[in-house]
Amino acid sequence: MYKKDKLTLKTKILREIFNIAPKQFKEIDLNNHFLAKKFHISGNELKNNIDFLVETGLIRRWPVGKGEERILELMITDKGVDFLERKAGEEKQEKFNEIVAFTGTLIALVTIYGFIVNATNLQNYPINYWIVTVIFSILVVSCLGPLSMIIINFWKKFVERR
């Protein structure tokens, strides 16, 4: 697993703990814990991720009860909330940057096309005009594809959060 994937998993677990905290659970049979099932990870991997979040001060964990009745309670810390807010801001900025890049590319393509057609009087050369038009149309459509996927994925995530 790549470092970014591991960080993403820790962030997702932290978000879940934020959404459900305070949450109590037993450290017995973590393979059947709902977080392990939700993220398709082993109980050991879940425990390691929770331990990491505790060690970094993003969540607090403390025992409640004794013996077989002992459960752990998880709560996100202010540091954890700040981290999630910063992470959400970074994700939004990244998506915005992608949209700006694709939009800028579209504008540049249309401007270049207009310049080539007008500067060289391509209307007077129909074959060349249509070749350039087809090439630039393909380029514009190739930029619209990723841009539309960004918008579609944004709406999917927006709907999932509700």
In short:
With 162 residues, this protein is mainly alpha-helical. Helix content is 71%, strand content 9%.
Tell me about this structure:
With 162 residues, this protein is mainly alpha-helical. It is built from five helices and three strands. The protein has helices spanning 3-20, 34-39, 43-55, 78-119, 126-161, and strands at residues 23-25, 59-64, 71-76. Strands 1-3-2 form a three-stranded antiparallel β-sheet. The mean pLDDT is 78.
Which terms would index this structure?
162 residues, mainly alpha, three-stranded antiparallel β-sheet, 3 strands, 9% strand, rod-shaped
Question: Share of helix among residues?
Answer: over 70%
Please write the string of helix (H) and strand (E) elements: HEHHEEHH
What's the count of strands? 3
Low-confidence stretches: none
Mean pLDDT: 78
Q: Could you give the order of strands across the largest sheet?
A: 1-3-2
* Oligomer status: single chain
Number of helices: 5
Radius of gyration over C-alpha positions, nearest whole angstrom: 25 Å
Structural class: mainly alpha
Shape: rod-shaped
Cα(first) to Cα(last) distance is: 30 Å
Relative strand content: 5-15%
Biggest β-sheet strands, sense, barrel: 3 strands, antiparallel
List the topology elements:
Layout (H helix, E strand, L loop, with lengths): L2 H18 L2 E3 L8 H6 L3 H13 L3 E6 L6 E6 L1 H42 L6 H36 L1
Antiparallel strand pairs: 1-3, 2-3
